[in-house]
Amino acid sequence: xxxxxxxxxWSVKHGQIITCPVVCNFETHEYIAVHDDKVLRIxxxxxxxxxxVFKATLSAxxxxxxxxxxxGPVVLFKGGGVRTLDVLLEAPQQEIENIIxxxxxxxxxxxxxxxxxxxxxxxxxxxxxxxxVQKLKMNSLHKYKLEQxxxxxxxxxxxxxxxxxxxxxxxxxxxxxxxxxVPLQQNTEEEEQTLSKSLLLNxxxxxSVLKGTSFVVVDKDHIAVLGSLAASGEESKECxxxxxxxxxxxxxLKELPLGTSGQLWCYEEKFFFTHGKVLTVILYKCExxxxxxxxxxxxxxxxxxxxxxxxxxxxxxxELVVSFxxxxxxxxxxxxxxxxxxxxxxxxxxxxxxxxxxxxxNLKDASTSVFENELRQLMSKAQMPDFQATIGCVITALxxxxxxxxxxxxxxxxxQIVQTRDLSYSLCPDLMAVALEKKDVHLLQICLQRFPxxxxxxxxxxxxxxxxxxxxxxxxxxxxxxxxxxxxxxEFNNKEVKTEIVENGFNAELEQDTWDTKIxxxxxxTADGEFCPVGPQKAALLNAVLHSAYSxxxxxxxxxxxxxxxxxxxxxxxxxxxxxxxxxxxxTLPGIRSPxxxxxxxWMCLLLDAHFTVMVMLPEAKKLLSNLHKFxxxxxxxxxxxxKIEGSLRELQRLNHQKDSQTYSIEVLELI
Length: 672
What we know:
Layout: E1 18-25, E2 30-35, E3 39-43, E4 54-57, E5 62-68, E6 72-77, E7 82-84, H1 85-90, E8 104-113, E9 116-125, E10 128-135, E11 140-146, E12 154-162, E13 165-172, E14 176-183, E15 192-195, E16 197-202, E17 204-205, E18 208-219, E19 222-231, E20 237-244, E21 249-255, E22 265-266, E23 270-275, E24 278-286, H2 291-296, H3 324-328, E25 335-340, H4 356-362, H5 368-381, H6 387-404, H7 411-420, H8 431-438, H9 441-450, H10 456-468, H11 471-474, E26 490-492, E27 495-497, H12 508-514, H13 536-547, H14 552-559, H15 564-583, H16 597-617, H17 619-644, H18 646-658
Parallel strand pairs: 11-15, 24-25
Antiparallel strand pairs: 1-2, 2-3, 3-4, 5-6, 6-7, 8-9, 9-10, 10-11, 12-13, 13-14, 14-16, 17-18, 18-19, 19-20, 20-21, 22-23, 23-24, 26-27
Domain Nucleolar protein 11 N-terminal: 1-285
Organism: Scopus umbretta (Hammerkop)
Subcellular location: Nucleus, Nucleolus
């Protein structure tokens, strides 16, 4: 999610349906899926086709698979039977008992109690709800009946385990959350006990009622609820809310105007939910609840989007921070910081204890020198775990001043921050946009090298700028040349100075000449000359693009908009790199951050996919495509010949191992 890149994609055949969420086996690093209720599939990252991976058809329908970090996967069947995956795979067709008869499973969860896997699931039958607790190692199953609630029923469940007691939280249709304590130790022989529940929270505030759809536990005093907030006479609005269960108050909320799927997940201090067509990820930090923080939310009911203790954007001032809405507008790019913290009386706050947001707000009208000096001091004082967020705030403040004052552009300050801090695109999304506007190619180069999550649209914009800038302009500016200085051919007085020798005896001219290709023998020839088609500065910038991570699906539509002349120039440079890599014995270019053969090949294929029709029609591209075709053909034949003698070479190696290394001999081996 942080790098915004798909790591793998697998699909079932047409007509097959994946019937429960796919999980990862933490012990074997395998994925486990069930399709068509009974067909189990297990595969690893390197597997491509699901038809060829492990398959097992089970004897009963699967409801859910739960994967425990130290307990292995646990399979819950729709009839209430439970098996560990290891036991199930020993005999996939083993009979699975039907425990719950006519009941329907509504929810399930798994925990580790010490070394003991524990599974809890809730069922419903004719308006009655039941809770089952299964201890796998002890093979014990306990059934409880949930106390009925007049005129309402459970809509969603969540649970956590502590001190041998499962705390089950139930979101009811009467807009309330109830708490149920489920003991793990069963001291009675009764077949079924009734669990009493207690009211934990009413989801209403200032005349508004939250119609919750799903919720998660944040900590012992806070829960997050996703739903629709409706006030009398007003249209309901979908929103994410944080509630303090200790003081029965709404801590904060965030409206979600694009709508959600109604599902909310929480994992490793991050919220996950869909907002429109966007997956939104929100980091949060939760500290001990206090009365001051709890009542602070109710002081100003007219400003529901402003909160003194939950800060959706790290800063409180909208002018100093990229708004939550603008971050969500980029597909799969929304990541903001939310902090739950106690806030003391503002009269007691000392000047050196000002929040980052308040400090930047105070600096809004400061002079440039004072502004930058204060920001440097702020960075030097930043402490973990808010260090990254603080740096992001500093960059955002600099960028916002650039927007309000077009003549202001702290190039050196921004370069210093990017070069010395571990940042990401999502932490400062407007930085590269401003650098593109200013055509600050050096800053763009550093961002491409250091940011792991750059959107494909921005990568394409950088490529277009790099290709369009003149060589004369690039020679006057500072660019990092460490990726090209060790291999690029430099022209002096129309003669080339080469600093390398061919390591593996492979020569592009000789190979191409073998297949009736007439080219000069002075050096490795590109499409229309003997030298690298771009200067060292432009080559270094293009190398930064080649190193940037991307998804072909998202990049290809943008790459099709690249002007034809720039596409030809870029392909010429890729062809030049391809030839240079082929000279090396290990097909690796020397230098720091030099492109790899795989990166060169991938980009070459991507560029040809995007512009093949245009390339065929352009006269200046004809020779380039012809040379590229012949060079690749020569390589294919060369490696084909090597492949033919592979067996003989292995046999020779085996014979050498059998000989006494101390004896001297000359042998003539005939390769057939």
